[in-house]
Design goal:
By secondary structure, the protein is of the alpha/beta class. Helices cover 49% and strands 12% of the residues. The chain has 10 helices and 6 strands, in the order ααβαβαβαβααβαβαα. The protein has a 6-stranded parallel β-sheet with strand order 1-2-3-4-5-6. Helix 2 packs parallel to helix 3. The mean pLDDT is 92.
Length: 191
């Protein structure tokens, strides 16, 4: 489960309380939280979010000089961190050098932005030397979801409607209808 400040702002006035509620409702899911500045100091918010559940919370920090510096301090203290907005392949080199658990590229943005590699996940993976995960985000359709995995993503963060689309296949639906029709009207008794 992942958050971002824009979506968090739409649904919660208190992001940390909302994060706590989501953690309580989501069982064992790993939880990615991006400090949003709602409480002023990003670093204090990051620590507060991580302390909600240190085993499950990974902090998302922007791939900017300030975000990287904070990521380094947190990683050095044993906090799991992901660099988000990892829109260039060298983000993997930086993330691995400071001990980040993951990089999070924005896939749809990469496809639309001429400054970014179209197959950004593949480019990040080509530079990976350790176990830093690639979590593809900003996935807007089933094609992007599939391409992310083809390009080497370890995980994909996508809206529920995209995930529902992944479960649908017209050919499988047709096959099911055909097989069901084979026995229509001939209900057998189960042994």
């Amino acid at each position: 489960m992942t958050t971002n400040p824009t979506l968090m702002r739409r649904c919660a006035e208190d992001p940390l309380r909302h994060c706590s509620d989501l953690l309580a409702k989501s069982g064992e899911l790993e939880f990615f939280y991006q400090p949003c500045g709602a409480y002023g100091e990003i670093e204090a918010e990051a620590w507060a979010a991580w302390r909600l559940d240190p085993e499950r919370v990974t902090l998302k920090l922007m791939f900017t000089p300030a975000g990287i510096a904070l990521a380094r301090r947190l990683c050095d203290a044993g906090v799991r961190v992901a660099l988000t907005a990892a829109q260039s392949p060298h983000a993997m080199v930086v993330a691995e050098s400071i001990g980040c658990a993951a990089v999070i590229p924005y896939l749809d943005r990469a496809w639309r932005d001429p400054r970014t590699e179209t197959h950004l996940v593949r480019a990040l993976g080509a530079l990976r030397r350790g176990d830093t995960q690639i979590v593809a985000a900003s996935v807007k359709n089933v094609g992007q979801f599939t391409q992310a995995y083809l390009d080497g993503a370890d995980a994909v963060s996508a809206p529920l409607e995209v995930l529902h689309g992944v479960l649908r296949d017209p050919a499988a639906d047709e096959a099911e209808q055909t097989f069901t029709a084979e026995y229509a009207g001939t209900a057998l008794r189960l042994p």
